[in-house]
Model the fold of this input.
Amino acid sequence: MQPTLVILAAGMASRYGSMKQIEAFGPSGETILEYSIYDAIRAGFRKVVFIIREEFLEDFKDIYEPKLKGRIEIAYVFQALDAYVGNRKVPVERKKPWGTAHAVICAKNAVNEPFAVINADDFYGRDAFDKASVFLTRDCNPNVYSIIGYDLLKTLSNNGTVNRGVCQTDSKGNLTAIAERLNIAMVDEKIICDDDQQPKELPLDSKVSLNFWCFDTSIFAYSQKLFDEFLDENIDKPKSEFFIPIVADEFINSKEGIIKVIPTSAEWFGVTYKEDAPEVKKSLHRLIDKGDYPRSLWAQ
Done:
């Protein structure tokens, strides 16, 4: 069974102002998201599910359908505040979405096969999609999920510190925890975290999570159960969010199953704000010059 790619894109409009204003990163006007879809198609994914806000549906269709139709099946899912909250009343002061794990729940009626989840505004690289596809088609089941683990060294910035979810693993390479570490930088050839946690120095071979997950469809019911518990405790907290690592930690700690950390050699770069764009464009054009991607993704 060919896997599906689920893309977390409900927050994109808030950062860019309008879907039509998304930055073009490729030589032919491609968005960063198009490179993820291109890599997914090459890796054997058969369907892409966009999780978006309903008001941006037509913008998404205008941007992506002319390029993707006939190449991969397309579906759209809306992450609304009242989706999957049961009979609970969402407080009027609540404005922001419930978080990434809630977004995954919203996709459950559009996904019937093992699937990967990624951010819309990160570049993950071909190797990551190849390895995710192999896992999803061969090894994924209700008791075995995975996360793609990136080399921390490859995600540091020359322009300042970064925050990363550092993966902790057991002797078999299975995830035991994700520790959110702050203010990470290379100092005198050592990786140092300037936060209140220990250890201050991280191993040079540390793996980090960049929100590239691989799940069986069993994740939907499991996440819904935890979301119900989350809402019972947090529905009146306007800034509370239900993230995928919350579900992952509970899945591991309750012995429901394991989450494999699958290492990738892929180069990662992210774009969160418009100020990130110049360096991302340079990185992408280096890969194009190497021949990793065509100058026009959809010309053929």
